[in-house]
User: Fold this.
Amino acid sequence: MYDTANDKQKRHAQRMGRKKTVIDEQIAAAQEERGVFVINTGTGKGKSSAAFGVVARALGHGMQVAVVQFVKGRADTGEEAFFQRAAATMQMPLKWHVTGEGFTWEIQDNDRDFAAAQAAWKVACAYLSDPAYNLVVLDEFTYALKYGWLQIDTVLKALAERPRMQHVIVTGRAAPEALVAAADTVTDMTLVKHAFKAGVKAMPGLEW
Assistant:
C-alpha cells in the first residue's frame, strides 16, 4: 500500500516534533553566558575566512572587535580593505593589525619572525586584557606556537585571564593539543581539493 501525502506529512511532523524536543532540551540546558574560545584549524581552506565572517557578525551587533594577524605581512587583502573602509565610513568599532613579516619560507630569518611574533603578541595582550573588546581574532596564530616564537603556557594564561565576556578566535594549522584542550569550540577543516594544487593561481577576492 502506498503512502498518501497525508501519511508522509504526518511522519514528517512526528520526526520534527521529536527533534524539536531534543533541541529545546539542549537550549534549556545551555544557560551559561560567557566569552567563548574558538579555534579554526586543519589543512583545509577557510579558517581565516570563517573568523572574518564572525567579525562581520559581531560588528553587526555593535560589538568592539580587534584583529591581530600573525605571520601574514601583506596589507592588500580584500578582507582588510573591506573592514578598514567599513570601519572608517560607518564608524565601526574595529581595530585591525597586520603584524607579520610574511610567510616564513619567504623571510627565512627566524630572528625577524621571532621579533615580529613577540611584537604581535604584545598588541594582542592589550586587547585580551581590555573588557571593552568583545571579540579578539588572532589570525594565523598557531604558527607562532609551532615555531616556538611564543610559549604555550604564557598564551594559555593570557587566554584564561581575559575578560569573562570576551570571545577569542584563533586560526591556523596544527593547533597544539594544549590549545585545543583549552578551547570551547574547535573546527578541523579538512582539505579535499584545492585549485592551487592543479596549477591555478591564488586569485584576488577568493584567496586574498
In short: The longest strand covers residues 37-41. DSSP finds eight helices and six strands in the chain.
